[in-house]
């Protein structure tokens, strides 16, 4: 049975007519940049995340970058984050003028370990960026308490956590601001690149809205130098169509994750992901740990089951961060995970038959 890692074609074909209808209107109106479709999506996404402001952008990377630029980092300012994230988190910190400082993760949830944060705080630390990795919120209360104590801001990297909940509160509303990605494979994905910032801070929202549009306050009047970081109308309209399905898709992801938990429990050599009791994850990814990960991955591929690695090499071991001089052993939990983690197929369109086949195949491979 062929099981792709992601089945965007299935999702898109179900919504194709609705999306094409709106795109035809936009083509007829020739209103591609800004305008009512972008504004409508921003309002809808702010409502969904229980925030007062959403600024639609062209990527999650720009969402992070604009937040850090708006918060104002001076050269040498330090920002704490996890080493097991996509490089966009730290690129954005560096490109806004700061320096990423890594703190290891919790071995159960794979999110920033609050117990290790204070040791990394220096007089140059400005903020903390918990990454809600795989769709599971980080331990926000503990992180927020540390931030308050040291007068730091907290920015959520919620790029993988659309509609995830922490103590009944929605990801995106848990810090000073949050970044979301609508890269096509995300839980809410555009038909191209897109992203957004959510925040309850009107001043921050106003600066980010200027940053995305060349620092303009009105056409050709520039309060500052900015960027071209806008979300276009075609993407916003497609996102509005998809957003209506996101609550149901998220529920389905949770059901699928539950099914994996039931079918894969008690298998020697396989560790299931841990969900913190205060969390309702969005399950962007379902990631298990395997002692002989590469062997299992190859064997699954031979059975036509696609899997993924998130991420094969921790950021502090990447060539891009060689200048930070962080040797092997700097973040042992992250390093151990990088060798053992395997992401299984998980998307709303997955059938129960496919989940059972994946689990039976893993059991067979592990003997
Ligand atoms: C954790 C994390 N942060 C940031 C990003 C960057 O988002 P984008 O690809 O939309 O720029 C992604 C998505 O790839 C991500 O997974």
Instruction: Give the cofactors and ligands.
Output: pyridoxal-5'-phosphate
Question: What string gives the helices and strands in order?
Answer: HHEHEHEEHEEEEEHEEHHEEEHHEH
Number of strands: 15
Largest sheet: 7 strands, mixed
Helix/sheet category = alpha/beta
What is the CATH level 1 assignment of the largest domain? Alpha Beta
Radius of gyration: 21 Å
- Largest sheet: spatial strand order: 1-9-8-5-4-2-3
Percentage of β-strand residues: 5-15%
Give the N-to-C terminal Cα separation. 20 Å
Approximate helicity band? 25-40%
The number of helical runs is 11
Number of domains: 2
CATH homologous superfamily of the largest domain, by name? Type I PLP-dependent aspartate aminotransferase-like (Major domain)
Low-confidence stretches: none
CATH-assigned fold name of the largest domain: Aspartate Aminotransferase, domain 2
